[in-house]
Structure formats: structure tokens, C-alpha cells
Amino acid sequence: MQEYKGYGHFKLERHALNLLIAGPALWVLGSIHNSCQIYERADGHVQILQQSVHIPFLMGSLLFLVGSILNIHEQAGRGYHGLKLLGKTWVWTGICGSLMIFIGGLANAVKVFKMQQIDGLRLEKLRGGAQERL
Predict the structure, then answer these.
(1) How far apart are CA 58 and CA 75, in angstroms?
(2) Where does the chain cross the membrane (predicted)?
């Protein structure tokens, strides 16, 4: 009876696919916001190290977003349930996006290590973030 009224699994699966786009879209927005933050008193080398962290994170989140959009088009008109909602395109772009985020994490570890080696430079706060505005 509930499926007849539209309250069944199909409506929930449609919402799940919509959330599969909303999550990466917000993640891309956060990645763009993070890439606008800079170190104020740092030299060019440190700025390059910081961008080497932001670019893989941005690319990974963009891959998640593109994969979810392609998945919506791939699943359009099909009545799949469960894990079959995730098409092969989304799985592969998700794997590539995860790899980019892993590379960004490694670049962040290298950045912190290098910044601590450079004349004992203390890690300063990033400027342009939400905490600065408070």
C-alpha cells in the first residue's frame, strides 16, 4: 500500500541518489574555500607546498562530483536497489578520487615535515578562514 502511494523504496532510493550529488557538491565547495586560504608570512616555497595539498583535494572532490552526476544519468529510468545504485562509472571515479585525496594527505605530511625543517619555522594559522572572521 505504501509503495502504491509513493512512500516505498523507490522514493528513498531517489533521495539517496540526490544525496550522492549533494555530498560531493558541498565537498567541492569546501575544497574551493580551503584553496583560498593562504599563509601570510610564508615565502613562495611554502605557498607552493600548500597548493600541492589543495590541488589533489580539489581534484578528488571534483572526481566525486563528476562521478555522482554520471551515476545519476547512468541510473536514470532503472529500478535498481541497494549497491546496484552505484554504477561502474561512479565506482571508478570514486576510486580515482580517493587516490587523489590520499595523495593530498601524503603531500600534507611532506609539507608539514618540510615546514618544520626550514629554520624551525612554526606552522602559522591560515588566513582567510572562517575562524578569522569570528
Answers:
(1) 26
(2) 15-32, 53-70, 90-113
pLDDT tens over the chain, length 134 residues = 455 555 555 667 777 777 888 888 998 998 888 888 776 666 777 778 888 888 999 999 999 999 989 888 877 666 655 556 677 888 899 999 999 999 999 998 988 888 777 765 555 555 655 555 55
Domain that holds residue 98: 2-133
Number of domains in the chain: 1
Write a three-state SS string for 76-120.
CCCCCCHHHHCCHHHHHHHHHHHHHHHHHHHHHHHHHHHHHHCCC
Residue type, 75: Q
Backbone angles phi and psi of 128, in degrees to 5? 100, 5
